[in-house]
Amino acid sequence: MRTETPHIPTADGRADAFAAFPDDGERHPGVLMYPDAFGIRPVLRDMAQELAGHGYYVLVPNIFYRHGPTPVIELPEHIGEEDRPAIFAQLMPLIQAHTAERTLSDADAYLGFLAGRPEAAAGPVAVTGYCIGGLVAMRTAVAHPGRVAAAAAFHGPLAADVTDHLDELTAEIHLGHAEGDLTPEALAELNSTLDAAGVDYTSEIYPGTLHGYTMSDTDAFSPSGLRLHWDRLLPLLDRTLAKK
User: Fold this and answer.
1) Is the peptide bond before 85 cis (omega within 30 degrees of 0)?
2) Domains delineated in the chain
């Protein structure tokens, strides 16, 4: 396994990132992995390397690079509930500043970077994300129907700029909702909207999970939720991205 920390030119500067890919001299399908609001840190690097081990070039960008390089804010080794108020007091201005316009401008740069990497295969890519990264992944998929073949969002919200344009999606998508984030009634309403738009999707509530269930460095972590996340994500990528 090889890892790199590239800096990607964007319209507003340079975004630092983490990349992981098999060290076999072959080209592998690209996966753009958007982090949660806490950003690039050991748990995200571990997840990127685990995914890369299945035969992908995985790129994790610092979505808040306009506010500084990783780590944009200092984090404890374990993010407990008692830590969240102070952390989110710092994060909320960054989250609010990361508009849909910025998301799409940056996505162009990240996808362009993947297209230019000799280790990344030509052809469609996948996008996946966690928390705010799930929203960013879906925005990227909507904006690049010819480029993004699969999109997955885990414990991530959807905004009107996504749900209003679902009929433009060509990617197969998976939405893994936290039980603490979405009621069964809200899930049924969302899935009805996806059906009406003709989206190829799976969308489900992960049992017994809280927002942030994939992140092992938080109190919300659910081992069963993380396993289900891999059980859904890996077949989705296998179905939609051609591997050698």
Assistant:
1) no
2) 2-240 (3.40.50.1820)
